[in-house]
Amino acid sequence: xxxxxxxxxxxxxTEERVEQALIKIEVAARHGADFVVLPEMxxxxxxxxxxxxxxxxxxxxxxxxxxxxxxxNHVYLAAGSMPELxxxxxxxxxxxxxxxxxxxxxxxxxxxxxxxxxxxxxxDLPEAYFHESDTLSxxxxxxxxxxxxxxxxxxxxxxxxxxxxxxxxxDMGAKLIICPAAFNMTSGPQWWELMFRTRxxxxxxxxxxxxxxxxENAAYVAWGHSIVTDPFGKILAxxxxxxGILYQDLDLSQVEEFRQRNNIIGQRRKDLYTIDxxx
Length: 279
Known about the structure:
Layout: E1 2-7, H1 14-30, E2 35-37, H2 51-54, E3 56-57, H3 61-73, E4 76-78, E5 82-90, E6 93-105, E7 111-116, E8 122-125, E9 128-131, E10 143-147, E11 150-154, H4 163-171, E12 176-180, H5 187-203, E13 206-210, E14 227-229, E15 235-238, E16 244-249, H6 254-261
Helix pairs in contact: 1-3
């Protein structure tokens, strides 16, 4: 499969941001991409207070445009993430929740997966305050889905910091884990490469991280550096901070070969320790 990670800057409105994404999806498809990935919160400025303002319900206008783009370009599309509005009623009470949500569409535009960010990023330091939990609710499901290339896992940004989640995805059969992620100028230099290489080695899977391009004028300045690593933790490809599309050919069947050559997964002591997977 040819993977394409779209590293893009934002525009002033959701409509413009989605239109930019649609153009770049078409470019990736013309270059032979089978699977296209967008960055975390690509459809709105990355700021906790903005998420309720930009949120759309499942199946909203942005969802429809992205679904149509997947079908029109005959690609799988992991649509980064967007703020999702969920409206429900409980005993006549109107309840609204906002999630950081990633949708996955197949080549026909059918939604085949949906991941709500499980671990919300809360940073409370003297030099920085950023609490996703001020406006977002946390998801509660690990997400692994089937494709013609094999099973693929999906997480969002801060989810990668918790090793149990990627291990559960590997146990569920994922050979590649995709992670739209907006690391910043503090977390990026320290942990971006480390996290993707470590999770790849831990679980002997391919890892792919798609970040926004850096905008020094934005309230939240992203690290960029979209990346693909192999099951040995080797960096196969990585962008810099600027806008671009990272292309990488992957053969997910190679995961079993990697595991046979260096069998870590198979040598776990499940008689002594396990991960309780309730998904």
